[in-house]
Design goal:
Shape of chain B: globular
Strand content of chain B: under 5%
Oligomer: heterodimer
Structural class of chain A: mainly alpha
Structural class of chain B: mainly alpha
Strand content of chain A: under 5%
Distance between the termini of chain A: 54 Å
Distance between the termini of chain B: 40 Å
Chain lengths: ~100, ~350
């Protein structure tokens, strides 16, 4: 791995960590389940994307890079579905979305 | 395994260890069963990472798939599907009738009497003491089982030492584990609670995601099974991943084929036990001990056992999760015929 690749990969991981931190802050600070879902699914999936990108450019082979990308795609599909199901269940239980006063 | 631990990895190890113990402590401390279940799942994921750091990838895969995944789903399923034996349930006369769980109904453990809590604390402390004592006597640099296993490796029929242990050297253990799983399914089905009313249709998004993820999960299960001969993976990990696909399909409302589905599932459940016993008879047929197969036939026998075991393990785990047998009469479309 060349120095340039290492620098870019490190930068990508740092960007990923910023998104993960934002998602975690959202889960802890946002007022209701819908807002928290929004934070954790959106921010974490973008963070995971940057992390995967860092792993892809440092992958020893194209096959391993493809596996990393596949992991990201599956995480996108499953977290989108899980987010939708949790939000739907919350709505069906009559949890009112938060509104600013 | 961890021979040279650099600063960054040491920091990771410390974070993992602290998180693991923190999760365990919070899990034991909470009286909220749902919270405890979520912490248990997080604990399983942390544990898998710890196994990975220790170089035990086989165990890490099994912990992630079975410990965190399937067991977590089982615990959550048990909470929502159990009869309403909760706060005031008996007083309202709805004991043993199904009621969907609501946040108000969430089971909460009453604190035990002080004498019991002291006894439990003493017992836990005694176990912890014994474990610490044993741990203090483990040599820090130990060759492990590799030297004992080395003479068996050449004609064992697999290249992954973990597979050789599980399916050749200690095949008895694995056979009995398969039988235990079968017994678990029988026990779960024998003590089945009344079927839950059919839940709301889960929505188009879950159906679409299921159509994508179930084939992928089956493919990954097959990959783990195939890789298990030479690299970390094998029947238990593969079976758990495929069982995850089955549970997902059940959630999405996928139903069994109209005819023959229930019978095929029952046949699949016992297949691994029968095939394993049959392979075990290979030794006695040649004047050797039971479950003794080496040399030329070993590779084929191990492959057949692993493939069939994957099927039976997947079916067993889904079967325990569903909690009741698939209906024998497919014409009756009740709420209970959505066995994945």
């Amino acid at each position: 791995m060349s120095t340039a690749v290492a620098i870019v990969a490190t930068a990508l991981v740092v960007v990923a960590l910023v998104f993960f931190a934002a998602g975690t802050a959202g889960v802890l600070r946002f007022p209701d389940v819908y807002n928290r879902l929004h934070a954790v699914t959106k921010a974490d999936n973008v963070g995971l994307g940057f992390l995967i990108l860092a792993l892809v450019i440092t992958s020893p082979s194209a096959l391993i890079a493809a596996k990393h990308i596949a992991i990201w795609i599956f995480a996108l599909i499953t977290s989108t579905t899980a987010c939708h199901l949790i939000a739907r269940a919350a709505l069906q239980r009559g949890i009112e979305p938060w509104r600013p006063r | 395994m961890a021979t040279e631990v650099t600063g960054a990895l040491l920091a990771l190890d410390v974070v993992l260890a602290v998180s693991l113990v923190g999760c365990a402590a919070a899990l034991v401390a909470t009286a909220d069963v749902f919270k405890a279940t979520v912490l248990f799942i997080v604990f399983g994921v942390m544990m898998a990472l710890v196994w990975g750091r220790l170089g035990a990838v086989d165990v890490a895969l099994a912990e992630a798939a079975i410990g965190a995944g399937i067991t977590g789903a089982l615990l959550l399923g048990a909470q929502t599907a159990q009869p309403a034996r909760r706060r005031g349930a008996a007083a309202r006369g709805r004991e043993h009738t199904f009621q969907p769980a609501t946040p108000d109904d969430a089971p909460v453990y009453q604190p035990a009497r002080p004498s019991r809590r002291v006894a439990a604390a003493l017992a836990a402390a005694a176990v912890a003491g014994v474990v610490l004592l044993a741990l203090s006597r483990v040599p820090t640099r130990h060759p492990g089982l590799a030297p004992i296993l080395a003479p068996h490796m050449p004609d064992a029929g697999a290249e992954n030492p973990v597979t050789v242990v599980l399916l050749s050297v200690r095949a008895y253990d694995t056979l009995l584990e398969i039988v235990v799983l079968l017994a678990a399914v029988i026990a779960a089905w024998a003590s089945a609670v009344p079927a839950a009313p059919k839940p709301e249709p889960p929505g188009a998004l879950l159906a679409a995601a299921t159509r994508v993820m179930v084939p992928v999960a089956v493919l990954i299960g097959g990959y783990l099974l195939w890789r298990g001969a030479a690299a970390p993976g094998g029947a238990f990990q593969a079976g758990a991943v495929i069982a995850g696909a089955g549970i997902l399909a059940a959630f999405a409302g996928v139903e069994l084929p109209r005819r023959g589905g229930a019978g095929l599932i029952r046949a699949g459940l016992v297949a691994a036990t029968l095939v394993f016993l049959g392979a075990g008879a290979y030794g006695p047929a040649r004047g050797e001990p039971f479950l003794h197969y080496r040399g030329g036939a070993a590779e084929g026998l191990i492959l057949v056992i692993e493939v069939v075991a994957t099927l039976s393990i997947a079916l067993s785990l889904v079967g325990v999760f569903m909690g009741r047998p698939p209906p024998r009469t497919p014409e009756r479309t009740g709420g209970d015929d959505e066995f994945g």
